[in-house]
Specification:
The complex is a heterotrimer of chains A (about 425), B (about 190) and C (about 120). Chain A is mostly helical and about 425 residues long. Chain A is about 70% helix and about 0% strand. In chain A, strands 1-2 form a two-stranded antiparallel sheet. Chain A is globular and about 95 Å long. Chain B has two domains: about 130 residues, Up-down Bundle (Four Helix Bundle (Hemerythrin (Met), subunit A)); about 55 residues, no CATH class. In chain B, helix 1 packs antiparallel against helix 2 and helix 2 runs antiparallel to helix 3. Chain C has about 120 residues and is mainly α. The chains are: A mainly alpha (about 425), B mainly alpha (about 190), C mainly alpha (about 120).
Chain lengths: ~425, ~190, ~120
Amino acid sequence: MECVGLCDVVLNLGVRNQELARFLASLIGVLLVSGVPLLTVIILILAERKIAARIQDRIGPNRVGPYGLLQTVADLLKLLGKEDITPTAADRILYNAAPIISFGSVVLLWAVIPFMYWNTPEGAANAVVGVNLEIGALFFVAIASLGTLAIMTAGWASNNKYALLGAFRVVALLVSYEIPLVFALVVPVMFAGSMSLVDIVEAQSHMWFVFMAPLAAILFFISSQAETGRAPFDLIEAESELIAGFNIEYSGMKFGMFFAAEFLHVFTNGILMAVLFFGGYLGFFYKAIPPLGFLWLGLKGSLIYFVFLWLRNTVPRLRIDQVMNFNWFFLVPVSIINIMVTSLILKVMQEMGYAPTVFAESSLIGILPLTIVMLLKDAIIIGFILGRLGQEGRKARIEATHAEESLAAAAAGD
Amino acid sequence: MGDASFSLIVAFTVFGILTLGGALGVILNRNLFRGTIWLMISLFGVAGHFVLLSAPFLAAVQVLVYIGAIAILFTFAVMLTRSLTQITDRFTRLWWNLGGAIVLFVVLVGAVIWPVWGGFTPGDDILFANVMSTTDLGIALVDRGSDLRQGFVLPFEVASLLLTAAMIGAIVIAREADDEEKGKRG
Amino acid sequence: MSVLNEWAFVGVFLLLAPIFPILPMGAAWLFRPSKPNVIKNQTYECGVETIGDTWVQFRVQYYIYGLVFLVFDVEMVLLFPWAVAYNQLDLFAFGAGFLFIFLLADALIYAWKKDVLVWK
């Protein structure tokens, strides 16, 4: 039984029992890996508030500490002192379990994210990563679906009509948007020939997947925005319609956990998108100075996170029927067509010898023809879609004008 | 196996308790939603067993499909029924059902254990001899099959047809239910 | 066996993950005031006492979405091994996967034509 990496270090520290050493190594590893999201979430809450404020032409928190840097700490202390009201009618066990599942599942997602390059001995993961699972991408989707269950549980356990209605709508939305999300995820998996996130990053060492599959990246971006329940898909917190949605009965730290889970989920999606489409830790000197890779990953993730926020603070909320129809009549068909066309072109080009079969072992020149063809294909599809949308919009506008005219005529006739 | 057997046994016990405890929870409580949660705990235990059997892909599928989709579907179905969330009637003929359940349980357990009785000892390395990577799985899934290896392309396509048929059937039934509901209201 | 080593890490993570939210919640439990009363603990709906059972009957629409999602979920799961092995497949095997997607796209078109996916 091999004992590599951290386990070896622990063994050398004087722990005799190998099994104990392995357990301790896992424990330390988990604490290290989960430390990243737990620390970032504190910064995220401030960043989100500051950015939202700037977009809305406000200053944002600026009283606590220099530039309001300690605002989150103050919020945390305030939340600690908040009374926690559990409604008598609630189902106590499930009511308390829901925020735990919600936050825990988001932290768990970080287990498979590769942080930086590391030259390790034969057979081990070539990166600093919690665990390089063979099914990493699928693990991510599976654990993320636990969050859906948490929302459902919260809504049901609150025993509140608005909470239940909000939970039902949100869950219907979340499961619907999971389809284009996963279909978009299939594309990088297909390119890399592996579900391991480390392999996916390595396969991008010559060309980021965003250049080869921009459409998949856009689909993934839109559906992850919906998965986190952010505007324009923020039916989760439709204050005017559902008072607050599934978390209406939650207060104090339990509400805080839902809140933190949402913020962290957005950033996690940004990081995941960086890993899947923007080359993860790849960047200048990522091999020579591995910590630089960590910086690249953080930078890319933060940039995508910023676009998430930007979108959230710019567009208005959609109605539930618009959201659902957008998914079923637009995203799902487009994502299916995208997979079919992409797989067809890739196979044809591989058979003709214009495309490599193992991307990581190819070169920039070897991968260039495929990139150009893929880019063209996506440009054509996107152009076609935009054309159709323009037509539909024009038709709707003409109809609206006609309706107005006939109304005006009717009014004049009276 | 050597020194890993202890943690394996611990893990196996924990997952076993989750699976069986969850299953007991499903049948012993009278609230359908809580029953769904118990069922998910039970299925999560099964996912753990898949991992212990070195089939992580199946474990992820178990979590994704059962906890991610079936649980949601069950809750929607529970909420479709009017007042079944709070069942208070006691079932009649309880003893008769219990007897039937025990007989069925014994038969099923026997059917599982009989073919492999004495074939292996717990913690045997044979369990981990044929670990299949997802790539192999994918190749086998769409392979015609030859003398050397098994191919599953026909079942794969049949599965696709089955899924299509399931969806069409579900839509037809659900539409009927929807029409009935509307008829009642109107 | 190395597969199990990896998953041991996931197992430890799974044990620790709930502790992260439990810690602040536990701390809040220590510090916060707790003065519940009957009025405060009522269900918060719209100012007046809540009427009837919360767990009311929902529309069949949700169930249809759930079903369609389940079908696609199973499809996605079967598609992943195909995508992983994609680079090593010959044309026949590729076509098998292609047909698989095509058949399910059919199901989507059927659902589309029958108008069940429209939120009403």
